[in-house]
Each structure stands twice: as structure tokens, then as C-alpha cells.
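User: Can you predict the 3D structure for this chain?
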Amino acid sequence: MYPLELIQSIRLITDVCLEVAPNDDVLCVTDREERMDVMTLVAAECSAKGADVALVLIEPRKQHYQEPPRSVARAMRGADIVITYGGANAYEGEEGGLCGGCQIPCFNRRAQGISSEIEHNTGRSH
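Assistant: Here is the predicted structure, written as C-alpha cells:
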């Protein structure tokens, strides 16, 4: 069972921030297995809205802001919406990940381009 706050946060992201719609190409990316449960919920919510969804687990980056694998970078460029979930730092051996803190940064290429970030706290601790 997941906390109501987590479900509400995911729906805020998919409904309000990203306006996920039928036939949107959505890519969900994380770099930690322990975060796959949250990303699976995000992917399921997008799928329930009729989007075509892919969920990807990548190896943690060795340096802060290191690019993802080329195949994932290509998929990110081709997606309508990219949602990532990572930690505060991307350095090996530290709590880290793709984008920052215990946040889900959402990128919506349709609205403002892939560089625009909207961050939402999921309320989950590490």
C-alpha cells in the first residue's frame, strides 16, 4: 500500500504539470532499483491516461550531470515527456542520481523544451 500523499503527488505531476494525454510518448528513467516502485506507479498512471510509456533503469552516473547512455539519450530526445527520479549527487558512493534530492523533475518538451524543470517532492525518504 502506498501513502495517499505519494499517489496525489504522482497525479499532480501527470495531470497538472505535464498534462499527460492519450498517445503521448512518455519515458520514465531512474538510476536506482529502490526507486523503481515509485517510477512504476508514475508509468502506470501515464499508461492509464492512454500514453505510450517506457520505464528505464540505468547505471548510476560516475560524475555529476554525466550524460545517460546514448540509447537513453536518444529516447529522451524523441519522447514527448521525460520523467526522471534520482538523488542529490550523481557521484558513485554517495546518495545520488539523475537530477536532485528526493525530487521528481518533470520535463515536458511539448510546452517549453527539454531544459524546463518542474520539481515536486514525493514525500519519500531514502
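Helices lie at 4-17, 36-48, 70-78. The chain has one domain: 23-121.
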